[in-house]
Amino acid sequence: MTTKKKVITKDDIVSKYMEEVLEKGQKPKSVYHFAKDNDFTEAEFYAFFGTLEGLEKEIFRLFYENTVNLLHKNEEYQEYDMKNKMLSFYFTFFEILSANRSYVLQTLKIDRNPLKNLVQLTTLRNSFKEYVAEILTDEYRLEQERFQKFQEKAIQESSWLQLMLTIKFWMEDESAAFEKTDIFIEKSVNASFELMNVAPMNHLIDFGKFLFKEKVHSR
């Protein structure tokens, strides 16, 4: 009697890839080698991913997706203000990273060129920027519509930079239970929201409009 071959899933491929990188200390040479070494076909791989690079990016996106799914399971989360939503995201995201720390550290240091390692984070970057846009509230949005688009992009980019700096800090954190990272998260998020306070910016814009009108009328 022929044993029916197990249908391989997307999660199976992700798990096998992470295991291979950890065990061999390097990335597979090709989809062919990866599939052959893990007893599935190239066709099964291509049903979910176009390239190994695409798989690498998807792993970090899945860390993000799992974070957001966990957040939405908490009924209180929906009532949080923007700052507390961001703090919740950070603490949950870094719990997931810590659960996969060996893989994250190895894969983000595997190439001598740091920029090549960071390519894996491009899908995470897009997803995180969308998340920031979703939780952005009127409290942190300029009243002047023509400045809003520029401001929102600036907030997204600065939030991504902050996440990258936190990842770097976490990667170098040697404290028990990464408690220094927790402190870093709280202080950096609090500081960023202080800087995002739009009230002074609105006053500056109003002042600028006043000066412009005065200059025009004085001619």
Automatic annotation (TrEMBL):
It comes from the Bacteria. It holds the Pfam family TetR_C_23. Signal peptide: none annotated. Residues 85-211 form the Tetracyclin repressor-like C-terminal domain. InterPro entries: Tet_transcr_reg_TetR-rel_C_sf, TetR_C_23. This is TetR/AcrR family transcriptional regulator. The lineage of its organism: Bacteria, Pseudomonadati, Bacteroidota, Flavobacteriia, Flavobacteriales.
